[in-house]
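Quick one, T. Sequence first:
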Amino acid sequence: MKTWPLWQRIVIPLLIVLAVAVVGFFVWANTPLAPTAEALAALENDRAMQVSESNGWIVFTPTTAAPVTGFIFYPGGRVDPRAYAPQVRAIADQGYLAVIVPMPLNLAVFGIDSAQRVIDAYPDIQHWAIGGHSLGGSMAARFVQSHPDSVQGLVFWASYPDIDLSGANIEAVSIYGTSDAVAQRGTITDSAARLPAGTPFVAIDGGNHSQFGAYGLQPGDNVASASAADQLSQTVEATISLLTAISE
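Structure tokens:
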């Protein structure tokens, strides 16, 4: 009976475990939370809004007037980017170019610099803001850190920076739900020291983590007491306030 050398008896099982872990990670990352029927309906064109897939992005372009300000959005971790169509379309409805950027493996940590390609593709846009939900917001903050001259605004939806932007020359806003069990209130508000002085924090009473998109209730989250329509409305209003500020 053949006896394997000691190094093979150690290395081969480790390689098998590693291979299983890698395959498991890819399966996990590629099974995102799916968009609702409402989200898919928000991807339809009408006379006031052109919705297109350009360079892999989901682009909302108002047809009534040429926008001069744009909003780039990074999805939350393991959330199908289409799930943010209702919120992002509602922002575009107010006259802004709005672009949802799908991420490699549905995780924005693998696509931090993706916004620069969007900016380069739309040279007629004079003002840019970037934002994101949860992990997407944190990675949007990292984009701001590494591209300080590319954007003028930063928007967090149930998110916070994991780096120091207190000295950044940028308008920012942090929007969160008081019933969020995934990104909890204290963690978000404690990030004020890492943001420019005077950054507003907008609390949505009874809002949760999941209703910043349209993908159902996320595992581990609380059921919201605020309606999805109310949370969407307040999220969009606070985001547009920032877009208005950087457009002046």
